[in-house]
Amino acid sequence: MNDRLALVTGGNGGIGTEICKALVSTGYRVVTTCVDPEAEDIGGWQASLRESGYEVDWVACDVSDFEACATMAAQVVEELGAVDVLVNAAGITRDTFLHKMAPEDWSSVLRVNLDSVFNVSRQFIPSMRDRGFGRVVNIASVNGQTGQFGQTNYSAAKAGIHGFTMALAKESAPKGVTVNTVSPGYVRTSMTAAIPEEIRQGIIDQVPAGRMAEPEEIARVVAFLAADESAYINGANIPVNGALFCSF
Fold this sequence. Notes:
- This protein is of the alpha/beta class.
- The protein has a single domain (about 5-235), classed as Rossmann fold (3-Layer(aba) Sandwich).
- It has nine helices and seven strands.
- A seven-stranded parallel beta sheet has the order 3-2-1-4-5-6-7, sandwiched between helices.
- Helix 4 links the parallel strand 4 and strand 5.
- The protein is globular.
- The termini are far apart.
């Protein structure tokens, strides 16, 4: 146990759950956010993890709301201590072509997927800078790099995340804080499982690896970036997409 505290936003999602488990396995104390504890059955989720040997705390917070994030941060610090590792994993989709997209479809995705990265990071960066240590890992997407049909909102938000990462990395590096992005490709979660079989197979056919990623494969990269030993990796965007998109 290294006694460092990690906060994962949206940690009860498919990828988020595996991130929480990976961080616990690495020795971190872990807390996640949820929006509606009852609707999300966060207690049941927590109990299921506990039965498997993973202890994860939770705190209610709408990460799209700055003041809610300030309240959440104060609660976390009071109850659990200073946050050493922040993983911004919360996200939603509201897919449709732009010519059919309602303003709320645009703004809700930007608020949850991009504004939240500022809202939450803003609460913890000052303390990380003061203590001379911090790890921020932002979860973006291959579609932020390539664009995707029906996802102008999602692609814009995910692309914006890495712009945020690069700027904050430059600001934070002198203070011992790293800020990096992980950009998953298509991942085998309940969300992708809901895609009609024909469309899902069409997606897999485009991936040179011939399959979707397992959530654990994303979590492994997050845990690597969160490690004390990863201090010189800063401002990077790590793709985990099975060679679906390659660049340098």
